[in-house]
Design a protein that fits this description.
By secondary structure, the chain is α+β, with helices and mostly antiparallel strands. It has helices at 35-38, 49-71, 113-126, 128-133, and strands spanning 7-11, 18-22, 30-33, 75-89, 95-109. It contains 4 helices and 5 strands.
Length: 146
């Protein structure tokens, strides 16, 4: 399986600095990031790690749910998935992701509400991003001064 890459170029301190995150593998874009806008209610055209995690989680979950529905012998007609990722204080200091809420509304042929709920629960448990967000045992770091 392939490895995908994103890159962030950052200048300045936490409060006065800013950066750009680049979706390097796909080349689909570069997006501004800053801590003050990350912590603000209005992102004002600036993305954040939490929004990028929400994008990853919602798309991964949609794929996993589509697979689970197919495995149940049904046909997904449409799935509308939203992931809400909340940044909150960490009791040990700093910040942490304090909550993730997945919301899905679907149109499915051949599956009742209970079957859909079961497929959604299996997709939540089996989605690779859900698994990663539940805890990662092997996080590697390559750090160097330029």
């Amino acid at each position: 399986m392939p490895t995908r890459t994103a890159r962030t170029a950052w200048t300045g301190g936490l409060q006065d600095g800013s950066g750009q995150v680049e979706l390097a593998s796909s080349g689909v874009g570069k997006y501004d990031v800053s801590f003050p806008k990350r912590a603000a209610d209005d992102a004002d055209g600036t993305t954040s790690p939490e929004e990028l995690i929400a994008a990853a989680h919602s798309s991964c979950f949609a794929m996993a749910l589509s697979a689970q529905i197919g495995n149940a012998g049904a046909t997904p007609e449409s799935l509308d998935v939203t992931a809400d990722v909340t940044l909150g204080p960490d009791p040990d200091g700093g910040f942490r992701i304090s909550a993730i809420k997945l919301t899905v509304r679907g149109r499915v042929s051949g599956l009742d509400a209970d079957g859909f709920a079961a497929a959604a629960a299996a997709a939540k448990a089996g989605c690779p991003v859900s698994k990663a967000l539940a805890g990662v045992d092997n996080i590697t770091l390559d750090a160097a001064l330029a």
